[in-house]
From TrEMBL:
Domain ChlI/MoxR AAA lid, first and last residues per copy: 234-298
One annotated GO molecular function: ATP binding
Species annotation: Sporolactobacillus laevolacticus DSM 442
Keywords: ATP-binding, Nucleotide-binding
Family that this chain belongs to: Belongs to the MoxR family.
Domain of life: Bacteria
Domain ATPase AAA-3: 41-171
Protein's name according to its UniProt entry: Magnesium chelatase
Family matches, as Pfam families: AAA_3 (PF07726), AAA_lid_2 (PF17863)
Amino acid sequence: MNPGVEAHQLISELIDHVETVVVGKRKVVKLITVALLAGGHVLIEDIPGVGKTVLVRAIAKSIGADFKRIQFTPDLLPSDITGLSIYNQKDACFEFRPGPLMGNIILADEINRTSPKTQSALLEGMAEGHVTVDGVTRALPVLFFVMATQNPVEYEGTYALPEAQLDRFLLKLSIGYPDRRDELSLLNRVPDRNPLNELEPILSLADIMYLRHQVASVYVSDSMKNYLMDLVEATRTHPMITLGVSPRGTIALLRAVQAYAFIEQRDYAIPDDVKAVAPFVLGHRLILKQEAAYDDVDPLTLIQEMINTIKVPVLKKEMVK
């Protein structure tokens, strides 16, 4: 990393670089960058064809990372993603053949189409940073980032992920359709020219690890931490919610707030950072009561209502350090 270049500027350049390929989705790119810098993982629930694969490949190429794609199917086995030991007759010993999970940036495509046993193998890697194959624990790369996709559960052959699995994702997002202007720009691209093929790395894996260290040092005042707790506790007492945010979710929110503040070129967090990331960090961690479905209430709406009603702290100069 060039010591003369501000770390904040590097992040802006990364987002701009990815957006040359993924047109009109700056907010989504920004939030995925939040997860990358916070050391978390992302779940995207959306219909096929909106650019999920292109997005994650663009991020991987922009940081020179080892990209692996896993297509989850009902017959996929845990060893298909973690790897397995194969007997080498020449050397008379077993050799470990690593699976696609042994990469830096992993696209876990249609994760809700595979069996719970295979999902748990991915979960171990996401949660622990290692996988167990034939009784041997094998460490994953230091920079290990999973972007999983799932089709809406209304689609045939899909099954909702268990709560424990959902809680392992820092963010849950939806890309959505591009607006008319952005989709027209896609149509006007030169047919035989794929901008993804022309994308060059602008950061290294070492740069990302350095930026993660910088993000962890973003200052969050006591009043801001109490603001986070007010929001989390509201999810645990809301009459429409059966199960609120866990302590793991509280920590995830703090990490996301720090990363968002850093992307906004600050070394301290403010309430607007919480408002920007809270729906995407907390929404998928809630279990709603049955009457919420009857009233057509969804988690994101409830989180937004809480944000609108909880008192926002006024930060004094000494609080922002």
